[in-house]
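re: ur msg from earlier - yeah i can do the coenzyme a persulfide complex, just paste it... oh wait u already did. ok heres what im feeding in:
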Amino acid sequence: MVRNIDPRQEAVREEVKAFAEKHMYPMSEELDRMPEPRKFPRELYKKIGEAGFIGYAMPKELGGQGKSKLEYITLIEELCYHDAAIGLLCAVAELATFPIVHFASEEQKQKWVPKCASGEIIPAFVLTEPEAGSDAANQKTVAKENGSEYVVNGEKIFIMHGDVAELAVLFCKIEDKPKLSAMIVETDQPGWEARTLKNKMGMRAATTGGIILKDVKTPTSNLLGEVGKGFRYAMQTLDSARIGVAAQGVGIAQRALDESVSYAKRRQAFGQPIAKLQAIQWMIADMAVRIEAARCMTYKAVQLQDAGEKFTLEASMAKLYASEVANFCVDKAMQIHGGYGFIGEFSPIEKLYRDQRVLEIYEGTSEVQRLVIAGNVIGR
Ligand code: COS
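and the outut:
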C-alpha cells in the first residue's frame, strides 16, 4: 500500500497505470528479450512523449508539462513499478535535457528543449569515458577552438541512449583549460561514431552507447554556459538525476514487495499459504520497512529541490539507500518465489533482479554516494 504525501501524486499514479496497461505491458517482454543487435524502441518513446511524460518536469514555456519535481519523481517511481527499463527512457531524457534547461542561453533552450520534451529528438548526457567514470573530472576528450567551431576528439562509454541520440550534452576539456566545459553537439556531424553496447544485463529497453569522436565539429555558439563550469553543471545535473534513480529503486522495490505478497497468499506449503509462515512474514516486513524509509528519503530530497533549497546530501542519501533497498527487496522476492522467481517465464522477479542491479552503479556508484555524503557530513 502506497501512501501519498501530496494529493497530486494519486493523479500521476493513475495516469501512469492507464498508460502502462495500454502501452507498456504489451511491449515489456519483447523489449527485454530482444535478440542482439538491440534496437532503441522509437515508437514507444514517441508514445511516451505524446503522453507528456518525457517533458513532465520541463518548463511549460519550453514545451514541457511544467509539473513539480515531486510529480516527476512520482512519475518515475510509478513507471518503474510497471517496467523499470521503460521508465528509464523518461529518466534519461530528463537527465540529458536538464543541463540545457538550467545552464543554456535562452536561444539554445528555445532551439532544443521543446524537441526533447516532445520526444521528437533523443538527447544524451555524454560524460563518462573509458578511464573516467567515478573520477568524472579526469576527462581525456578535448575540444580545440578553430575559428567559430570546436573540433572534438575523444571517446565516451556507457552513455544512455548515446547510440541513438540526435543531440549530445557533451562534457570535455577545451584545449589547455584545466577544468571541464560542456557543449551541445548535433550528432549527425561527420566523425561521430556511435554503437549500441551489447549483452546488457538489465534495463534493456533503454539502450546504452559507446561513442568515438574523430574531429567532430560543433559551433562555439553551442558552448553551454561558461568555459570551465562543465564539472559543476554535471554535478548539479547529477544531484537532480540521483533523486530519479532513488525513485526507480522505490518503484522496483514496491513491485517486488507486491509480487511477493500476492505470491505468498497464493502459494500453499505445509498445508497453508506461505504468507502464514513467520519466515516469510519477516521478509515481507523487512521489505516494507525499508521501502517506506527509501520512499520518505526520496520525497524529502525532491521536496527540498522543489523548494529551491540545497539537496545534494539528501539526493545522494536517497540514491544510495533506495538502490540498496531495491537490491534487498528483489533478492528477498526471489527467495520467497523460489524457482518461480528464478525462471523468467513464471514471474517478473528475474527481470526485476537484472534491472535493479545498475542502480548501485550508474549516476554515481554507491561508493561515490558515500564520498559525497561523508564530504557533506564531515565537511572539507
Ligand atoms: N553542485 C555544484 N557544484 C559541485 C557539486 C555539486 N553537487 N559537487 C562538486 N561541485 C563543484 C565543487 O564546488 C568544486 O568547484 P570548484 O572547482 O569551483 O571549487 C568542483 O565541483 C570540484 O568539487 P570536488 O572537489 O568535490 O570534486 P571531486 O572531483 O572531489 O568529485 C566525485 C568527486 C566523486 C564526487 C565526483 O567526481 C562524482 O560525483 N563522480 C561520479 C560521477 C558520476 O556520477 N558519473 C556517472 C555518470 S552519469 S551515468
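cool cool. The first helix runs from residue 8 to 33. ping me if u need the other ligands too
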